[in-house]
Amino acid sequence: MALNLDRRHFLGLAGAGAGAAALAACGGPSTGATTATSGAADIDFSGVKPAASIDFWTNHPGKSQDVEKAIIEKFQAKFPEIKVNLVTAGANYEEIAQKFQTSQAAKTDLPGLVVLSDVWWFRYYTNGNIIPLDGLIKQLDIKVDDFQKSLVADYKYADKQWALPYGRSTPLFYYNKDHFKAAGLPDRAPKTWQEFGEWAPKLKASSGAQYAYMYPALAGYAGWNMQNNLWGWGGSWSNGWDFNCDSTESVAALQWAQDSIYKDKWAGVSSKNAADDFSAGIASTTISSTGDLLGVLKSAKFNVGVGFLPGGPKNESPVCPTGGAGLGIPSGVSKEVQLAAATFLKFMTEPENTAAFSAATGYMPTRTSADMGAVLAKTPQIKTAMDQLAVTRVQDNARVFLPGADQEMAKSAAKILTQQGDVKAAMTELKATLEGIYTKDVKPKLKS
Amino acid sequence: MTKLLLDSPAATAAAVTPDQRRGRWSARTRRDFIVFLALALPNLALIAVFTYLPLINNMYYSTLDWTLGSVSATVVGFDNYINFFTSTDAPKVLGTTAVFTVVTVGGSMVLGLLVALALNSKVRGTTFARSAVFAPYVLSGVGVGLVWLFIFDPGYGVLAWLLRGIGQQSPQWINDPQLSLVMVITVYVWKNLGYCAVVYLAGLQSLPRDVMEAASLDGANGFRRFINMSVPLLSPTTFFLLITTMLSSLQAFDLIRIMTPLGNGTSTLIYEAYLQAFGAYNRAGYSAAISVVLFAILLIITVLQLRFVERKVHYS
Predict the structure, then answer these.
(1) Cβ neighbours for A346, distance < 8 A, ≥ 6 positions apart
(2) Pairing relation of β-strands A156-157 and A392-393?
(3) Most buried of A263, B114, B204, B210 (most Cβ within 10 A)?
(4) Which residues neighbour B4 within 8 Å (Cβ) at sequence distance 6 or greater?
(5) Contact check, Cβ <8 Å, A24/B55
(6) Residue in B47, B176, B280 closest to A419 by CB
(7) Distance CA B302, CA B298 (A)
(8) What tens digit of pLDDT does each residue of A149-201 get?
(9) Is ipTM beyond 0.85?
(10) How far apart are CA A23 and CA A102, in angstroms?
(11) Contact flag A128-B310 (C-beta cutoff 8 Å)
């Protein structure tokens, strides 16, 4: 049979071959009957010799590349037999997760230690991608009791410890002290959003900024930040596994947020990064991570104030979620690599190193014994973040345990805050979506 | 007459040697075939390994309930396809894909043709203008996306600054899903019209001069010559561009990824496939099903274009 592969047919074949190769480049799964979760049994590391080299995958949270390098250099001096390769595995938590998940599928090139955010570690657990650290904690005598209790508890599931806290943060209320002074406002964060609602028109009138308040970028972590608004009004994304984002309280909180943009016209929504908008003087106030603190202090050309997150009409406290990232060890690498990684993890989270990390980024120190004297003398604003830790609240299950929930929350927030969509309808739709994700992707994998 | 006899079926049959009748190849034919294999096989092997094997694997993955990162999966048959087509997202994704493809293909081709007409004129500076028009096409999509994001930024972008100068607020280009689509389409057309312009320019410069001059002598003005002569004679170029730009538009990824990472309002089929697998959801099987749907659409469009559109193409 003659095959006339002329230009036109070649174009046809090009069309036929295009489009569906990305996923297929990965290795495939086995089609067994059971779904994998990380093994709960302790791994025996007795007699195991640490590997000579490990990769540390990080996104350098809070622009921490330099301090991470410095800590690694100190580690190399103490443990010359273990080489740590610092790998920039993404620009944010999502990109690092993407690389990690893809490597799991490809079954190759996994790191020894990986940065995992609050919304990703549980998925790694359900996929069987990380090991419990309990055995290593015992063998290496990692002082878990010295960590901030609530931060360690965030990574506990099925009586096992799946990660340890690293670059941990809370949202902070950032305000432009100069604008506050010009508006005749007290030099502090508002106690409630209602109080800020009274301040905002004065701020906008006197500051010259485009907005009195800038809502965080929806493409960032809207689901994380907006828990503050929901909790203040007595609502939430979910209560346990009851998805109550369409409750009267939740709807009222988001309606107030919408009104601040469209009715009262003193608030805006950041397009990329609220901390950058605030630093550039576009808004007089915003909410952003403590991990942005050092960056804001460096780039702002005005006096920066920080304070606790405002409460709402129902709750003044606790209305602040914790967030940020921990460190975990993959299951798909050898015991030697796991042991070397745990040795580095222990070193990375030691009190002096967590203090150095905090000093460089603004993230909270994860160890209670970390000497923060020098750090706080230089950057006293970090103290606010540390103090706020005492009034934080565990995040809603819907945000941290449901794959893709953060994205769905951001889309719903976009409908409400950028398209003036009906709040109740948006939340009802979100509830149905969250319930669908829970039923399909989470419920079957939960331990009873 | 002799030639006609030689070309006739009877003559051809008579010229066939006994070996050929028995299906045996001559030494020369065998040698040619070996050369053909030596040249073609490496390429065929690469295409098989890097295009068709993944394609087949992808089709298999589309029948699995597979969470990316999980080592195990469950066979679910066509459930992923059913879930996609019955989801509330399917009409949005297909609609966005259609709008993005039609507007970017149409925009790039129409503007490309207009630019080509301008560049085809004999005025000073056309060489520089050609380079300037084509340059965005060869620039990195990531770089282009980042720069345009700064231009569109409603807070401190150039566009917002200009609008503030005339007392206007910037639209929410990035947060508003509908405006996001307009923004991405605008940048995509800007980046790709240079390609269409250069291909059209080559087409314009190869038009037969005698035919165009004859039309002039017959009294056809510039517009009539363009509509009645240039456009039909450019149909092979138009057909080529239609296929290539449509294929690339349906697979546009970099600009969408950089400018609208959440795909809020800009989630075309290929971006939805990416988000479902590599974004927050990790639904690898579901994503594979969307990829197969995209593949089917590409195949159908290409076949339809080859079968029906090409019939209207005028090859000079």
Answers:
(1) A140, A142
(2) unpaired
(3) B204
(4) none
(5) yes
(6) B176
(7) 6
(8) 989 999 999 899 999 999 999 999 999 999 999 999 999 999 999 999 999 99
(9) no
(10) 9
(11) no
What is the DSSP secondary structure assignment for residue A370, as one 8-state letter? -
> What values do phi and psi take at B231, rounded to 5?
-60, -50
Structure tokens at A434: 């969250």
Residue B43 forms contact with A (CB below 8 Å): no
Three-state secondary-structure class, residue A330:
strand
Can you tell me whether residue A140 is helix, strand or coil? coil
> pTM surpassing 0.90?
no
Tell me whether A439 touches chain B (CB under 8 Å).
no
The size of chain A, in residues, is 448
Q: How far is A389 from chain B (nearest CA, A)?
A: 27
Cβ of residue A444 closer than 8 Å to a chain B Cβ: no
Nearest CA in chain A to B70: A127
> Any bridge partners for residue A114, and if so which?
A57, A328
A27 and chain B in contact, CB less than 8 A: no
Contact A29 B64 (CB under 8 A): yes
Query: What separation in angstroms does the CA of B110 have from each of A205, B241, B294, B314?
Result: 48, 11, 25, 19
Per-residue pLDDT tens digits for B155-203: 889 999 999 999 998 898 998 889 999 999 999 999 999 999 999 999 9
Beta bridge partners of A54: A84
- Homologous superfamily (CATH) of B89-312 is MetI-like (1.10.3720.10)
